[in-house]
Design brief:
About 35% of the residues lie in helices and about 15% in strands. The chain is α+β, with helices and mostly antiparallel strands and about 300 residues long. The chain has one domain. The protein has a seven-stranded antiparallel β-sheet. The longest helix has 18 residues, at about 60-75. It is globular and about 55 Å long. The protein starts with 18 loop residues before the first strand and ends with a helix.
């Protein structure tokens, strides 16, 4: 297991924290690629209205994103691309056709990559979510967000809703984004199971990590998020790659104590509102106890 950067404290919770990355490292599959693509296909077959949504104005941006991904993958990840591209109508990506749901460009692109794919477009008032394939949500529903402005999408997040400084900064950052400079940020949460499809939220007073005295199980869920402006349409592609690991994976890591300490510090620094949002209000003491075990092991 490679411990992603949020765990060591270098990417703080409830901060925008975006950084530029090389276009060569825009999308990076991990060892869970094949399993997550299979799960994506299952969800798109069984729960498509829940995990996929699009608005008509997103078509050109969908087409541009698919073209960009099919150009990027053979160059950046040729082995992975060849193993998982079979059966997809890549030869037809430049054919202009109406959105049908089944054949939309974004669906084709989503089946090629481990990441969830979202498209945001600017109108005269705000950036809005106009299309998304969201198979692995972390406690939010696509149906409640599609078509909404960026600030409204983040309304439940403490300090990020309409009228906040963070919302204004994000809007300016989206406006200033450049196609040649993708951006990356990390986010993490702690869950009581390892399901990838996790649209439901746990209330702040509900048990999250089992009923025993000891909090168990605890899973660390990391989102590798990227933002990339599409040069022709000016839309923004937002990608989310999810990884989920049991907290026991920290055991034996060369930085085990350091990472556990960083997690404790980050949780202790959360406000009551932030603890509520992360589902840790009731569970904070039990989670801290488990992390202390890792520090002292």
């Amino acid at each position: 297991m490679t411990i992603s950067t949020p765990y060591d404290g270098s990417s703080k919770l409830f901060q925008i924290g975006t950084k530029p990355i090389s276009p060569d490292h825009w999308l990076e599959p991990d060892i869970c690629l094949a399993a997550q693509l299979r799960e994506k296909d299952r969800l798109l077959t069984e729960y498509r209205p829940t995990v996929y949504a699009e608005q008509v104005e997103s078509y050109e941006a969908q087409q541009e994103l698919l073209s960009l991904i099919t150009q990027y993958l053979p160059e950046a990840h040729p082995g992975d691309y060849q193993r998982h591209v079979d059966g997809l109508a890549i030869s037809a990506i430049n054919e202009v056709r109406p959105i049908t749901g089944k054949d939309s460009p974004l669906l084709t692109a989503a089946r090629l990559v481990q990441d969830d794919l979202l498209i945001l477009q600017r109108d005269t008032e705000a950036w809005r979510l106009t299309a998304a394939c969201l198979c692995f949500p972390s406690s939010w529903l696509l149906a409640e967000k599609i078509g909404k402005p960026l600030a409204d999408i983040h309304a439940p997040v403490p300090g990020f809703g309409p009228g906040t400084r963070a919302a204004q900064i994000m809007a300016r950052m989206f406006d200033a984004a450049r196609p040649e400079t993708p951006m990356i940020r990390w986010n993490y949460s702690l869950y009581g199971d390892d399901r990838l499809f996790h649209p439901e939220s746990t209330g702040p007073t509900e048990p999250r990590f089992g009923a025993a005295v000891r909090a168990d199980p605890i899973f660390m869920r990391v989102e590798r998020q990227t933002l990339r402006k599409l040069p022709k349409t000016g839309a923004l592609a937002f990608t989310i790659r999810v990884s989920v690991d049991p907290i026991e994976k920290l055991s034996g890591h060369p930085r085990q104590g350091e990472i556990a300490h960083a997690l404790i510090d980050q949780i202790n620094a959360l406000s009551e509102e932030q603890l509520d949002y992360k589902g840790l209000t009731r569970e904070k003491p039990r989670v801290i106890e488990r992390l202390i075990e890792l520090v002292t092991a």
